[in-house]
């Protein structure tokens, strides 16, 4: 049984677009590769055919994954998010108590997490630690490398 996938409206749209692309353009590309590989002759010793069939299997697996995520998606709307405490959909401004460095994170479901974009999963160590806390709380965060940090929440915004 798949677990609930928490998505923002933007994340839901991105998944729908990915599914559309995979089911149309990408499937056509892979089918064309298989057709071309068959023309090389005996498929039992045809590495191009094997590669194309493997790509097709991976494509169908990804399509199934995206469909499962969409089926079990819970969409978080801006009206559902409060600035009182950190929750999925919050933009959290924090200050590292040790270094004094300020950072801003958007807390999202794991399907949308992207460190490069400043989107932290609600299941990540930092995201999980921040959930439920309020402005001016100092949160102890255990990092995956074994170190611990203290971060003070300086501001909470709605990020959707």
From TrEMBL:
<dbReference type="InterPro" id="IPR018151">
    <property type="entry name" value="TF_GreA/GreB_CS"/>
</dbReference>
<feature type="domain" description="Transcription elongation factor GreA/GreB N-terminal">
    <location>
        <begin position="5"/>
        <end position="75"/>
    </location>
</feature>
<dbReference type="InterPro" id="IPR022691">
    <property type="entry name" value="Tscrpt_elong_fac_GreA/B_N"/>
</dbReference>
<comment type="function">
    <text>Necessary for efficient RNA polymerase transcription elongation past template-encoded arresting sites. The arresting sites in DNA have the property of trapping a certain fraction of elongating RNA polymerases that pass through, resulting in locked ternary complexes. Cleavage of the nascent transcript by cleavage factors such as GreA or GreB allows the resumption of elongation from the new 3'terminus. GreA releases sequences of 2 to 3 nucleotides.</text>
</comment>
<dbReference type="GO" id="GO:0003746">
    <property type="term" value="F:translation elongation factor activity"/>
</dbReference>
<keyword id="KW-0251">Elongation factor</keyword>
<keyword id="KW-0175">Coiled coil</keyword>
<protein>
    <recommendedName>
        <fullName>Transcription elongation factor GreA</fullName>
    </recommendedName>
</protein>
<dbReference type="InterPro" id="IPR036953">
    <property type="entry name" value="GreA/GreB_C_sf"/>
</dbReference>
<keyword id="KW-0805">Transcription regulation</keyword>
<dbReference type="InterPro" id="IPR028624">
    <property type="entry name" value="Tscrpt_elong_fac_GreA/B"/>
</dbReference>
<dbReference type="Pfam" id="PF03449">
    <property type="entry name" value="GreA_GreB_N"/>
</dbReference>
<dbReference type="InterPro" id="IPR036805">
    <property type="entry name" value="Tscrpt_elong_fac_GreA/B_N_sf"/>
</dbReference>
<feature type="domain" description="Transcription elongation factor GreA/GreB C-terminal">
    <location>
        <begin position="82"/>
        <end position="156"/>
    </location>
</feature>
<dbReference type="InterPro" id="IPR023459">
    <property type="entry name" value="Tscrpt_elong_fac_GreA/B_fam"/>
</dbReference>
<feature type="coiled-coil region">
    <location>
        <begin position="12"/>
        <end position="69"/>
    </location>
</feature>
<comment type="similarity">
    <text>Belongs to the GreA/GreB family.</text>
</comment>
<dbReference type="InterPro" id="IPR006359">
    <property type="entry name" value="Tscrpt_elong_fac_GreA"/>
</dbReference>
<keyword id="KW-0804">Transcription</keyword>
<keyword id="KW-0238">DNA-binding</keyword>
<keyword id="KW-0648">Protein biosynthesis</keyword>
<dbReference type="Pfam" id="PF01272">
    <property type="entry name" value="GreA_GreB"/>
</dbReference>
<dbReference type="InterPro" id="IPR001437">
    <property type="entry name" value="Tscrpt_elong_fac_GreA/B_C"/>
</dbReference>
């Amino acid at each position: 049984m798949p677990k609930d996938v928490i998505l923002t409206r933007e994340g839901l749209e991105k998944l729908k677009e990915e599914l559309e692309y995979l089911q149309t353009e990408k499937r056509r590309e892979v089918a064309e590769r298989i057709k071309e590989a068959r023309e090389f002759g005996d498929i039992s010793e045809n590495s191009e055919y094997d590669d194309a069939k493997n790509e097709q299997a991976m494509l169908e697996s990804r399509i199934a994954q995206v469909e499962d995520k969409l089926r079990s998606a819970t969409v978080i709307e801006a009206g559902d998010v409060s600035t009182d405490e950190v929750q999925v959909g919050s933009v959290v401004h924090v200050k590292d108590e040790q270094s004094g460095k300020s950072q801003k994170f958007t807390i999202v479901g794991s399907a949308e997490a992207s460190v490069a974009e400043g989107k932290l999963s609600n299941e990540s160590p930092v995201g999980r630690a921040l959930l439920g806390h309020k402005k001016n709380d100092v949160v102890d965060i255990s990092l995956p490398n074994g170190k611990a940090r203290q971060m003070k929440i300086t501001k909470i915004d709605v990020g959707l």
